[in-house]
């Protein structure tokens, strides 16, 4: 009996910030560790997705490696055989199957993808690449190649997951059972528990989530920030004039955000943090505590990152990639046969 597969990707060309770290990376690592007895866990770096919009290619290779390093520094074990860590472009079947699936995908259904519409609306249709347009097809193939059942993704990826189910069902209906259809979105949510994507907010504008696209960088704490710089960012965080520390996301979003951040740093709950500081009027003192603990977190994280062993990572990547090529190629061959490319 082969185990069911849980699969997810984290983009490589991100300047990772604490929102990514606490909201996405830690939960994924935790999931990988706790579910790996029962499931195969596929974690991959979607490097082929990283230039659907223009990037600096001179740093791409380094940022792919760094992505893996950050996972390891954050606690991803390299010695667990049920956890597979691989680079998408090292498994050529992803590109190969994407071409095939492209030919069974409608222009209209890709044009309706919200993420595409948003990005192309900003820059105009002629400025966006065909890669951005059909990237949901590549994403679907990332999932279908490994017969994955569960795919933890944020809300912004829900539509892409639904498309994955659509294309799988469409091709199954036409050619027989070539693909495993991933579980529907509601079942995904039930399976992974929590409302996915706890969101840390921007420090200067707590009405929006922390995002690398913030132009000033002052509202965002990057994992690579100098601890002293991060300290200043916390001290400069927007709060309010109520002079009362309490966990009220609606009326005091800035303070609530700092409470969330401190709770994450301490691995405790916001209510516990609130209880400790409740009623205090001195935002400066509270910020000082958050700033100190943030600086300490970054210092120790950066130290772990420095000491990560690249050779161990490369060995893990290569071992996983060999195994993943076997799985992916067998799915690809099944499809090639089904559509008449192979006898
Ligand atoms: N598109 C995802 C994101 O932007 C990353 C991704 C690519 C992915 N392929 C995937 C996630 C397959 C889950 C499964 O976050």
TrEMBL record:
<keyword id="KW-0067">ATP-binding</keyword>
<keyword id="KW-0030">Aminoacyl-tRNA synthetase</keyword>
<dbReference type="InterPro" id="IPR050203">
    <property type="entry name" value="Trp-tRNA_synthetase"/>
</dbReference>
<dbReference type="Pfam" id="PF00579">
    <property type="entry name" value="tRNA-synt_1b"/>
</dbReference>
<dbReference type="InterPro" id="IPR002305">
    <property type="entry name" value="aa-tRNA-synth_Ic"/>
</dbReference>
<dbReference type="GO" id="GO:0006436">
    <property type="term" value="P:tryptophanyl-tRNA aminoacylation"/>
</dbReference>
<keyword id="KW-0436">Ligase</keyword>
<keyword id="KW-0648">Protein biosynthesis</keyword>
<protein>
    <recommendedName>
        <fullName>Tryptophan--tRNA ligase</fullName>
        <ecNumber>6.1.1.2</ecNumber>
    </recommendedName>
</protein>
<comment type="similarity">
    <text>Belongs to the class-I aminoacyl-tRNA synthetase family.</text>
</comment>
<keyword id="KW-0547">Nucleotide-binding</keyword>
<dbReference type="GO" id="GO:0004830">
    <property type="term" value="F:tryptophan-tRNA ligase activity"/>
</dbReference>
<dbReference type="InterPro" id="IPR014729">
    <property type="entry name" value="Rossmann-like_a/b/a_fold"/>
</dbReference>
<dbReference type="GO" id="GO:0005829">
    <property type="term" value="C:cytosol"/>
</dbReference>
<dbReference type="InterPro" id="IPR002306">
    <property type="entry name" value="Trp-tRNA-ligase"/>
</dbReference>
<dbReference type="GO" id="GO:0005524">
    <property type="term" value="F:ATP binding"/>
</dbReference>
